[in-house]
Amino acid sequence: xxxxxxxxxxxxxxxxxxxxxxxxxxxxxxxxxxxxxxxxxxxxxxxxxxxxxxxxxxxxxxxxxxxxxxxxxxxxxxxxxxxxxxxxxxxxxxxxxxxxxxxxxxxxxxxxxxxxxxxxxxxxxxxxxxxxxxxxxxxxxxxxxxxxxxxxxxxxxxxxxxxxxxxxxxxxxxxxxxxxxxxxxxxxxxxxxxxxxxxxxxxxxxxxxxxxxxxxxxxxxxxx
Amino acid sequence: xxxxxxxxxxxxxxxxxxxxxxxxxxxxxxxxxxxxxxxxxxxxxxxxxxxxxxxxxxxxxxxxxxxxxxxxxxxxxxxxxxxxxxxxxxxxxxxxxxxxxxxxxxxxxxxxxxxxxxxxxxxxxxxxxxxxxxxxxxxxxxxxxxxxxxxxxxxxxxxxxxxxxxxxxxxxxxxxxxxxxxxxxxxxxxxxxxxxxxxxxxxxxxxxxxxxxxxxxxxxxxxxxxxxxxxxxxxxxxxxxxxxxxxxxxxxxxxxxxxxxxxxxxxxxxxxxxxxxxxxxxxxxxxxxxxxxxxxxxxxxxxxxxxxxxxxxxxxxxxxxxxxxxxxxxxxxxxxxxxxxxxxxxxxxxxxxxxxxxxxxxxxxxxxxxxxxxxxxxxxxxxxxxxxxxxxxxxxxxxxxxxxxxxxxxxxxxxxxxxxxxxxxxxxxxxxxxxxxxxxxx
Lengths: 224, 442
Known about the structure:
Helix content of chain B: 40-55%
Strand content of chain B: 15-25%
CATH superfamily of the largest domain in chain A: Response regulator
CATH class of the largest domain in chain B: Alpha Beta
Shape of chain A: elongated
Number of domains of chain A: 2
CATH topology of the largest domain in chain A: Rossmann fold
Oligomer: heterodimer
Largest interface: A-B, 44 and 38 residues
Mean pLDDT of chain B: 86
Number of helices of chain A: 8
CATH architecture of the largest domain in chain A: 3-Layer(aba) Sandwich
Strand order of the largest sheet of chain A: 2-1-3-4-5
CATH superfamily of the largest domain in chain B: Histidine kinase-like ATPase, C-terminal domain
Low-confidence stretches of chain B: none
Strand order of the largest sheet of chain B: 1-2-5-4-3
Largest sheet of chain A: 5 strands, parallel
Structural class of chain A: alpha/beta
Low-confidence stretches of chain A: none
Order of helices and strands of chain B: HHEEEEEHHHHEHEEHEEHEEE
């Protein structure tokens, strides 16, 4: 998967690049709309991550121009301007998703994956997790053809950890994913613990769940 | 009372007083004038009499008699000339009675001592008081009619002129003061007037409002810009820290530290987010076009927060009438408002406490929404400041960041709701939201 990051904050662009490369994406960086144009003409991208606050051109203009050069890429708009107007106009112009700065890199990857899944027509393979299999499209967890009832939030939590498997995830990162802007770090960390406890309780009946590790004082990790 | 009304009243009243005074004083005045005139008339008669006596001599009139008297048939006027002894009589004009041919009549009487040769004569010229007053009533009535006519015309002219004169002021008050709601958005045009005072007032008001508007704009801009500018470094920090967390070489100790940093950064992010949110509400960046069912809205919030209530075993009761809808509101903002209030009700509640949301509505009355918790309560002295930004209660142990209720207040203001809080310390807190009737849709 090839990603073009169009972002004028160099430190930000580099961090995004480092993160995405760890997740096996190939990244190019453009700091201006001009640089982005050159890169887009020379390369094919699967994803274009576009910061709307570029120094040389209006972000939404860049978006509509880019759509002409790279019509097949998926676009995610990144902006510090949280305006609803911008968001709606961005999505109208054909952006696939929108992330308000500051955003979590985990969230970015999760959105990118969701777009990929959508574009590939929901043909994700069923993911094996120990003795369980997780079907992201049907939102179901199976153990030898037997379904395990997880609540909506519990499934969200499990699939998020699965997406970021083998990475330590803090409680805040998890609660931010589940509750978005409504997450509350002082309280929700405890609720994450409760949800994880429930997931373990529901699944351990069928098979060991030692792949779900607790990191003391930090959070959780799915290790497979 | 409006200036125009006051002036109208004053003009009308003052003129009415003049009319009344005139009506009271007119008989006296007319009487006085006619007496004055009679006095003058008698003096003139005296001069004429003296002139003819001078010309013709006294004897011509006396014709051998000792005295002369002459009067008209109706005895309205008379002239008499009679010799007097040496006593000196001064010239007088007075009202007194005389008997003329057995009739006792009231006369205005001029007495004059006339020396002719060695003989002294007393000249009397009289006019009956009845004739003096004969035109008075007519004169009074006529004068009164003319006066009332003139006063009516003058009141009319005064009122029209006052109205025209004050028209610019009325316009200034209407366009600059009454119709304007803070924050002032539309630009102002000076009111056309030739009165320099009004021009000055108008100009001062415009410049004052522009200054206020400018200052308010600057503040909004600052909050908005500062928040945006803070977002970028926070974003960079967040990505940095997240990448650091993923580093395989770091120890558990370092991971824990990084997790702590994330937590602090998250807190900073929340504060900036909230400030931006408030600034966006104050900048009118939310449309008010949704229709919201309050009962369902509370259910939505409950759905989002039920896990927190479960943690504390809080009993939640929603007795909101499901038929009340709010019109021309912003759904997301109302959600946030209810969310923040219920979230606080959970946060500051006790284990196994309760939260009740109910409403009160009578047709024609504003709709009232109550959120009651059985929590730790708020001290009386803190009730007045809980909606202030960054105001944290003494009992919250550093939880929260003191913007939740500011957001609630901003949203309420934005929709024209009134929000009040009452509390019994240690027992319960009640938030009462009053919603204007025109937003209610049944």
